[in-house]
Write a structure and sequence with these properties.
This protein is about 50% helix and about 10% strand. It is mainly alpha-helical. The chain has a two-stranded parallel ribbon with strand order 1-2. It is globular and about 40 Å long. The two termini are about 25 Å apart.
């Protein structure tokens, strides 16, 4: 999913994060199961909202922390 597209879609539906409806719309329109999705954001409130919908939220703090989290999810090999 393209982050730019996500921001444009959010403007079109006039819903902003951390409103759970935005996450639900994105999941539904992209046919994504929340439990299989990872959501990355630098705002803790947005992560809390995503986690409430059973997305796997990663609170971005720095590139090393993000890399560690993605390795833990099995999405990256530490190399």
């Amino acid at each position: 999913m393209n982050p730019g597209w996500t921001a444009r879609m959010a403007r079109n539906v006039r819903i902003i994060k951390p409103d759970p409806r935005l996450y639900e719309i994105l999941l539904q329109r992209n046919r994504i199961d929340a439990q299989s999705a990872i959501y990355i954001d630098d705002n803790a409130k947005n992560i809390e909202a995503a986690n409430a919908l059973q997305l796997h939220g990663i609170h971005f703090k720095d590139p090393v922390q993000l890399e560690t989290a993605l390795v833990a999810f099995g999405l990256l090999d530490r190399g």
